[in-house]
Each structure stands twice: as C-alpha cells, then as structure tokens.
C-alpha cells in the first residue's frame, strides 16, 4: 500500500487519526485525512462535557460534524469517551454517590442511543487506573468499585453492536504496575462475564529511542484474554523512527491488534506540539517516521 490506510487494510487493520472540530475548516488537514486514514476519533467533541453540558440536555452538534465528515469520506469512527475523571459535565461536580452513578448511567444511555449502530467502538471508560496499579481516585471511583463494570453493562445494553473498550495510557510496558492492574481487571471481567471487547493502549511514548521491549508481550497478553487491542492515541517524542517502527511492528505481530490511531496528523495538531511527535510536519509533508510506519505495515 502507498498510504497508511491501504497498507493497514492489507491485513484487515485500520489506520486512524484524531481530529478536533476546528480541523473541519482546515483544508490541509482534511486532504491528508482523506488520503491516508480510514478511522477517525474526535479529540474532545464526544467527551461527557461536550455531549451533555447540562443534565439531561444532550448536544451532539460538534460530535456529529466530525462523525458526518468522516463517514462521508469513507472512514469509520471510534467514540471517545463515555466515563472519565476529566472533562466531565459541570453538573457531575455537584453530585456524588448514587446520584452521580445514576448520572453516569443516564449519560451512557443518552449518548449511545444517539450513536447506536454507527460507531466502530466506544472507549467506555478512560484512564481509571493510577500509576501504582490501583484504581485512580475520582468522583466516579467514589461511587463504588463496581462503577466500571456498571458502565460496561450499561453500554452493552444501550448499543449491542458496538465494540466496548477500556482505554488508558502508560499500560504499554508489561512489567509496569499499571499495566498489571488493568490486565487483572480485564481478566476478572472476562471470567465473570462483564461485557468488554477491547483494550485501547494510548501509546503516548516519551523519551528514549527504544520502546518497551516487551510491548508486543503486553499486546499479546491482553489479546490472550479474548479481547481486541488497539493503539488509540499514538504519538512519540520527536517522532523517533525506531519507536514508530517498533510500535507498528508490535501491532502487526499480534493478530488481535486491530489498528493504530495517531493523536492528530501534523505536529501542529498535537497536544504535544513542541515535541513534534506526529507523522506529518507543519507543512503537511510526511516525515521519516511516516515511512518507517508505512514500511512496517507493508512488511506484514
Ligand atoms: O475550547 C477551549 C477554548 O475555547 C479556550 O480558549 C482554550 C483556552 O485554554 O481552551 C479550549 O479548550 C481546550 C480543549 O483541549 C480544546 O483545545 C482545553 O483547555 C484543553 O484542556 C483540552 O485539552 C484536551 C485534553 O484531552 C483534555 O483532557 C486535548 O485537546 C486533547 O487532545 C486531550 O486528549 C486526551 C485524551 O482525551 C485522553 N488521553 C490523553 C489525551 C491527551 O491529553
């Protein structure tokens, strides 16, 4: 394949990007998106604060604008995200206990009803673990340790056809405590029949020139639990070619690694913009890392 999506599709995978609503009027961004990518994630527009700004009042305009552009250009869409400690509706801040739990359930039902049957996957729960491998403390965690499984059961009932993912960062290194914490939760969910289909590894790599040597082991270990894995927000300090090649190869080596998404397209799109972590430069030209990813996709 001569594009990222064509190369990924050779093995039945996708190659995705994230876009903010402001990029819908950025012709440079849209041209690359249309040429290279076949999966799209909204950067902020499908998060809880965006989709339910006031209790029971849903607003899908910004999310739909991205969804519609993507679908009109032949892409699929990943939903990001339904339950998270950050970017919550302001009214969640004045709730706790059973009223916050009910608000979370109502939010999942309201948003998933709108997108029912339309999305490839939902990041149902985002970033619920601390670095030490225990649950991150948050208002949602304070509603009871079962909040995550309640979110997934609610999601399955709301849209039985969409893949339900748990998504987190710093879970790429197999021996890291947080990776093990998430792994143990997924194993427990599968053992008890809690509905979950996929784990999203955000894959925000920082520092050094090599990625965790056991990254592929992490992917295959999650996959062995009976879930798909996906790299959902990839970006790499200075777009290290070896790290990009390594993360792509790791995904290609694991049959249940279904696709890779970069968090933006050009360095100017990135939340880590001063680290130039993406595959295209500020002039929309592909960087060396682009070739290393493309070659790794085509080698598989
Ligand atoms: O829209 C307002 C704008 O009106 C205002 O002038 C400006 C001033 O700061 O802020 C704008 O909102 C910002 C928003 O991005 C849109 O640019 C928020 O302050 C800023 O906090 C928000 O950051 C987002 C961040 O999530 C918040 O948690 C980033 O764009 C987004 O890329 C980032 O994405 C997360 C994933 O969801 C989860 N994993 C990590 C990843 C990177 O942090």
TrEMBL record:
| Enzyme Commission number | 3.2.1.8
Membrane-spanning residues: none
Q: Which reaction does it catalyse?
A: Endohydrolysis of (1->4)-beta-D-xylosidic linkages in xylans
Residues annotated as signal peptide? none
Q: What class of enzyme is it?
A: hydrolase
One Gene Ontology term of the molecular function aspect: endo-1,4-beta-xylanase activity
Keywords, A to Z, come to: Carbohydrate metabolism, Glycosidase, Hydrolase, Polysaccharide degradation, Signal, Xylan degradation
**Segments forming domain GH10:** 1-296
**Keyword field contains Hydrolase:** yes
Q: What is this protein called?
A: Beta-xylanase
List GO BP terms, alphabetically: xylan catabolic process
Q: Which family does it belong to?
A: Belongs to the glycosyl hydrolase 10 (cellulase F) family.
């Amino acid at each position: 394949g001569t594009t990222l999506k064509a190369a990924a599709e050779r093995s039945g995978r996708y190659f995705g990007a994230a876009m903010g609503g402001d990029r819908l009027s950025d012709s440079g961004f849209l041209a690359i998106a249309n040429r290279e990518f076949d999966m799209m994630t909204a950067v902020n527009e499908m998060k809880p604060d965006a989709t339910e700004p006031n209790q029971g009042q849903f607003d899908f305009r910004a999310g739909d604008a991205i969804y519609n552009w993507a679908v009109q250009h032949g892409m699929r869409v990943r939903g990001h995200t339904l339950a998270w400690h950050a970017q919550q509706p302001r009214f969640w801040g004045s709730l706790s206990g059973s009223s916050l739990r009910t608000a979370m359930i109502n939010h999942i039902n309201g948003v998933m009803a709108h997108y029912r049957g339309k999305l490839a996957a939902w990041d149902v729960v985002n970033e619920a673990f601390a670095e030490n491998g225990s649950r991150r403390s948050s208002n949602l965690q304070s509603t009871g340790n079962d909040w995550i499984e309640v979110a997934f059961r609610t999601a399955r009932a709301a849209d039985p056809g969409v893949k339900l993912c748990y998504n987190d960062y710093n879970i790429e290194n197999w021996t890291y405590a947080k990776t093990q914490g998430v792994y143990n939760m997924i194993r427990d969910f599968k053992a008890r029949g809690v509905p979950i289909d996929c784990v999203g590894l955000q894959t925000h790599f920082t520092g050094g020139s090599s990625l965790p040597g056991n990254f592929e082991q992490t992917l295959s270990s999650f996959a062995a639990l009976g879930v798909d894995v996906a790299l959902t927000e990839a970006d790499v300090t200075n777009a290290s070619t070896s790290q990009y090649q390594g993360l792509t190869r790791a995904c290609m080596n694991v049959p249940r690694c279904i696709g890779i998404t970069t968090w933006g397209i050009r360095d100017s799109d990135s939340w880590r913009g001063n680290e130039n972590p993406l595959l295209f430069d500020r002039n929309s030209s592909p960087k060396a890392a682009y070739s290393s990813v493309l070659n790794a996709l085509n080698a598989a």
